[in-house]
Design brief:
With 158 residues, this protein is of the alpha+beta class. The protein has three helices and four strands; from the N terminus they run βαβββαα. 1% of the residues are buried.
Length: 158
């Protein structure tokens, strides 16, 4: 949840002031911890009265609260899926945990899904093999750089 305001705290009702003050206090505490350890805090949300630009555009003397809702859903047989494009499919079979397929090159990296090449041609979405290849190339480049720098990573989570 993000909160932005274009008014002063004393212009708010008591309950809203308490709500906004609590939120801003937590953000300020986090920013102070970040600065104590030399961590960049620019990704944290702003606090205090803001100008009417960006997310607060057309928001005059008000508070804007943005909620991000996360929904967890377990995939099951019969569910529809999409692979980055017009390639749609239906889950036919779910491979049980700990028997997932893998390659000899990366035995700790499980293969998440399979896609038929005929569906790629049938939907005329020929960019998918290129996209998949470039994605794998970027993952391997990231791993190579981490290996050179001596940075550890979990192969099964990339």
């Amino acid at each position: 949840m993000l909160r932005f305001r274009t008014c002063e705290l004393d212009e708010m009702s008591e309950s809203l002031r308490k709500f906004v003050s609590s939120y801003e206090r937590n953000v300020k505490q986090t920013k102070s911890i970040y600065s104590k350890y030399g961590i960049d805090s620019s990704a944290l949300p702003p606090v205090g009265k803001l100008d009417q630009i960006g997310k607060t555009k057309n928001l005059e003397d008000a508070v804007k609260i943005i909620f991000y809702i996360k929904y967890g859903d377990a995939m099951s047989v019969g569910d529809k899926i999409v692979f980055y494009s017009a390639n749609k499919g239906i889950i036919k079979y779910i491979i049980p945990k700990d028997v997932e397929p893998y390659t000899a090159f990366r035995p700790n990296e499980h293969i998440d899904s399979f896609m038929s090449l005929s569906s790629i041609s049938g939907r005329m979405t020929c960019s998918i093999p290129i996209f998949a290849s470039v994605s794998k190339l970027m993952v391997e480049l990231d791993r190579s750089i981490k290996d050179i720098a001596g940075i550890k990573y979990d192969e099964s989570r990339l």
